[in-house]
Design goal:
single chain, 5-stranded antiparallel sheet, globular, alpha+beta, about 240 residues
Length: about 240
């Protein structure tokens, strides 16, 4: 995830989460969102130390590598690592997270499809009972302009909002990160194999993004929200668009 001083054009209090959907429930971790049947999204605003999160995770998990993992992690990495796993645990109790040969995380026994992300002081998790999914969280920053040539193609640029150039780029980036995670097999060229159509930027909204791979060609409805100097984007559903 990108890390930089938060750009504040969209800065608003965390209570903005509650405007995404009326289905919010306050939970011990932070917020829980159910944007559609079979989909759950957890948000964690991280205030705990990495060690405190690790101990919380250890107290609820039969894990043998906790002691080995902690010394090799920076404080920030430890916070993100355990916050994501605790979110998964909160949304799917008693289900461990395992990774496949491509490094993609899964819930044990494939209880549901999942994805997670983290940036700055937040971690997010999404679970989908029905189909593969992806989520991405980024801080809003003008830094994105320096790397747009690495992930934007001509089709993407047609959907840039000229009034919110940085935010449009972030929506394209986060959508492509979501689809990269959904595909899960790596070997994805963000310029060649992925396109996104964010259009006019709002605080919250939806748009379409596409995967064009020889073995996988599909379109997806994406949903996003800007909050507290961040943007979070997730896959809402597969669509019938070509």
């Amino acid at each position: 995830e990108m890390a930089d001083t938060a750009y504040t054009a969209w800065r608003c209090p965390s209570s903005a989460f509650s405007r995404i959907s009326p289905n919010f429930v306050v939970m011990p971790l932070d917020k829980l969102l159910r944007p559609a049947p079979g989909i759950v999204i957890g948000f964690w605003e991280i205030s705990e130390s990495g060690a405190a999160l690790a101990q919380k995770y250890a107290s609820t998990t039969a894990t043998s590598n906790l002691a080995e993992a902690m010394p090799s992690m920076t404080e920030n990495r430890m916070q993100h690592y355990y916050a994501c796993r605790l979110l998964a645990q909160q949304c799917y109790p008693d289900k461990q997270v395992v990774k496949d040969s491509h490094g993609k995380p899964h819930l044990h026994d494939d209880a549901a499809h999942m994805s997670w992300s983290h940036s700055g002081k937040y971690a997010v998790f999404i679970g989908n009972d029905h189909e593969a999914t992806g989520i991405d969280l980024e801080q809003v920053s003008p830094r994105i302009q320096r790397i747009q040539h690495k992930f934007c193609n001509a089709a993407d640029l047609k959907h840039i909002d000229p009034h919110f150039h940085n935010e449009s780029l972030l929506l394209i980036w986060t959508a492509k990160e979501c689809l990269y995670k959904l595909y899960g097999k790596k070997e994805v060229d963000f310029r060649q194999h992925l396109t996104a159509e964010p259009g006019p930027v709002q605080q919250e909204g939806r748009f379409t993004a596409h995967i064009h791979k020889p073995d996988f060609h599909a379109s997806f409805e994406m949903e996003y929200s800007f909050f507290d100097g961040y943007v979070v984007t997730w896959v809402l559903q597969k669509t019938n668009r070509a």
